[in-house]
Amino acid sequence: MLAETDVVIVGGGLAGLAAARRLHRAGVPWRLVEAEGRLGGRVATDVVDGHLIDRGFQVLNTAYPRLGTLLDTDQLNLGYFTSGVLVRKGDNLLRLVNPLREPTSGPGTALAGVGSLLDRLRFAALATGCATLPASRLLAAPETTTETALRRAGLSDAIIEELLRPFLSGVFIDRELSTSSHVLAMVLRSFARGRIGLPAEGMAALPRAIAAPLPADLLDLDTPVAEVTPGRVRTQAGDISCRAVVVAVDPPAASALLPALATVRMHSYTTYYHSAPEPPLTEPILLVDGDRRELVANSVVLSNAAATYAPAGRHLIATSVVGPTAPPEPTIRAELTRLYGRSTADWTHLTTVAIPDALPAAPPPQGRLRKPVALGEGLFVAGDHRDSPSIQGALTSGWRAAGAVLDELRAG
Predict the structure, then answer these.
(1) pLDDT value of residue 107
(2) What is the pLDDT of residue 108?
(3) Distance (Å, rounded) from C-alpha 97 to C-alpha 286?
(4) What pLDDT shows up at residue 115?
(5) Is pLDDT of 17 > 90?
(6) Which part of the chain is the Amine oxidase domain (predicted)?
(7) Cα separation of 305 and 130, whole Å?
(8) Residue 291 to residue 286: CA distance in whole angstroms
(9) CA atoms within 13 A on the CB side of 139
């Protein structure tokens, strides 16, 4: 027998760390086992030639409600993006910015040549409703797909195809926009209420900050789990007996450990990282393709938001593609020449990060975005596949799973 404790958490990603924080705060004995040699799960940062390379393009939204429970975002030293997008349409780059964040941009955004003025007014009304209405009311609304919801809001094919499909496909990793309208409502709510940024030390700073208050001797890294049964977790180092188990790994691994779980379809994503001596844009703003070529989801100069992402004299560009098939880097570079409207010949290709299981699919019905976390017999599950497919969803599910564990232990 390796050890004995009240609760074993399997997985050291955001969901597992959130669960550990709640159990630790409650004074319940726990232990976390993680197969990798680091914490963070899908949130990770590597260093390549002095550049901070996140495990795919990821950002942090300050409006995520669960963040405030776990850390002070000021400690992450966030660098922020402009609250808006640039849209490439033919020879033009059109700038659409949230006028609540940048009031002087209102006339330019209203007149930008993406869809019609009525389109932009209707989308503003949709986003305002998501930002101001109670979340419970948004989640009680009739549920459909994102695309259907946008069309029911009166938006034209032009604004959907030139702006919203390329933008939202990068958010949901879903070019078909088959994601639940309830997820769309929560995403628009967070974008309208919060700011989007990057930690100065890379996205890996987020799980590090969440884990910081936890005792290091309760975090077993490099410890793969072979089997989970009620009251026991079997690892390569031996068995751990316990009263409850929280499985907080990615959906494919969770289904392998808990066969009773339904299989979760995952979306694939690839991010190409380039270094340039000069930035193709000087603004920290997302660039999307309004020419309907449907190859690049988005591109952004990360070092414009957080200068620490690139060494002195260099600039880091991240370009993301949705889908399981990653085009060759020269194909992407040619697209970037067109999108930015300038030569990329002096850019250096640093690396390509392909993530086959990047984000859980969330088609309707998703209901109120809170799937059960208690499976019975002392088994619990956490992860963004139990809430919304996002950082917020992962943190919330871990917190909920720990709460369900505490309820069961107290009742027992």
Answers:
(1) 47
(2) 52
(3) 11
(4) 86
(5) yes
(6) 14-406
(7) 26
(8) 15
(9) 14
Kindly report, residue by residue over 224-250, the tens digit of the pLDDT.
999 999 999 999 889 999 999 999 999
- Summarize pLDDT for 287-341 with one digit per residue, the tens: 999 999 989 999 999 999 999 999 999 999 999 999 999 999 999 999 999 999 9
Of 120 and 28, the one with more pLDDT? 28
User: Quick one: pLDDT at residue 61?
Assistant: 96
What residue has token string 């007149």? 111
Asked whether the bond before 252 is cis by omega within 30 degrees of 0, the reply is no
Are 280 and 317 contacting, i.e. CB atoms less than 8 angstroms apart? yes
Mean pLDDT of the chain: 94
**Edge-to-edge strands, sheet with 7-10:** 219-220, 30-33, 7-10, 244-247, 379-381, 374-376
Q: How far apart are CA 293 and CA 299, in angstroms?
A: 14
Q: What is the pLDDT of residue 111?
A: 47
Residue 99 is predicted with a pLDDT of 72
User: Could you write out the three-class secondary structure of 296-339?
Assistant: CCEEEEHHHHCHHHCCCCCEEEEEEEECCCCCCHHHHHHHHHHH
- CA 251 to chain CA mean position, Å: 15
Alpha helix (H) ranges present in 83-180? Answer: 106-111, 117-132, 135-140, 146-152, 157-159, 165-172
Alpha carbons 86 and 300: distance in angstroms, whole number = 10
Please report which helix (H) or strand (E) contains residue 235, including its range: strand 232-235
Strands 219-220 and 225-229: unpaired
Q: Hey, what are 315's tokens?
A: 């600039």
Strand partners, 241: 4, 232
Give the separation between CA 199 and CA 271, rounded to whole angstroms. Answer: 18
Query: How far apart are the C-alpha atoms of 298 and 269, rounded to whole Å?
Result: 12
- Band of pLDDT at residue 133, cut at 50, 70 and 90: very high
Listed residue (277, 197, 271, 203) closest to 52, CA to CA: 203
Asked if 244 and 378 count as a contact pair (C-beta separation under 8 A), the reply is yes
Q: What is the dihedral of CA 68, 71, 73, 75, to 10 degrees?
A: 160
